[in-house]
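Annotated sample (chain length 65).
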Amino acid sequence: MLAADDAALAAVRAALNWALFEALRAGIRSGAIVCYMLKRRCLLDERGIDELLDELGFAFMGACR
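Output written by the structure step:
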């Protein structure tokens, strides 16, 4: 789940193709977008969370790693 302020949400809506990841990355790094993961880590792994985080330029080391 993503929570974003109005300006960050407008930037995400306006982003095209790969610019979407740039808009998300900038919003997350600035704190204008907050990312919450509401599923178990094993389910997120099955659905490709590592690839998404890599594409956004983030590293994630959970407690189970």
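Annotation: Strands lie at 2-4, 33-35.
Annotation: Residues 19-30 form the longest helix (12 residues).
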